[in-house]
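Students often ask what a 'structure token' actually looks like in practice. Rather than answer in the abstract, let us consider DUF4124 domain-containing protein, a protein of 218 residues. Its sequence is given first.
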Amino acid sequence: MVSKRLAVLLAIISCSTAFADNLYRYKNNEGGTVVDWHVPAKFAGRGYEVLSPLGEVIKVVPRQLSDSELNDKDLVERLKRGAEAERARLAEWDRFLLLRYSTVEDIDAARDRALRELKIRLSILASNQRVARGRLETALSRLADFERRGEDALPQDLEAVEILRSEIAAAGRSIEEREGQVAAVTEDYARDRNRFAQLQDVVLLRRSLSRDRASRDN
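Now compare that with the structural description of the same chain:
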């Protein structure tokens, strides 16, 4: 059976040969994300990502398994499938971002447009709810007048109160739904922005590392 140390070494050798022109992204001891030409041996066993020259994820290498875990063929297969699914998800996300946007400012503009539409709808709903509440107050005032005079309220007034209460409740649910959409859209664009910024950083870092390597070679 291949030892963990040897498995890590083989993984590093594989990285340096099969993916020599690519970069690697891994987590350091502090949990920070590091991108470099190689993965240090002490971090390779934790798993890492192989990046294309554009920063796209082209391979996800899962964490190194223990000897007992390696004997669990089902676990090994699940991790392989999980790594491939994650690679495909990240690659599709990266392609989408690179095709749709040129700068992070493009993402900010798209976010602002999407939020503007949602906030307009939210404003309309809030306005409708305020109007319905005003009408409800008027209707309740009429009912109070009937009660003070000892008269029975008109059926249409009672019906109007129930309808207005239903409209206000429905508007409240719609407002909550729209507010949830605003939060979700904001979060989605924030993730896209951070991911796109990482892609740009990888491209810039690759250029810098290439210059440094060329200087060392010379």
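One point worth highlighting: Strands lie at 23-27, 33-36, 48-51, 57-61. Ask yourself how you might have guessed this from the sequence alone, and why that guess would often be unreliable.
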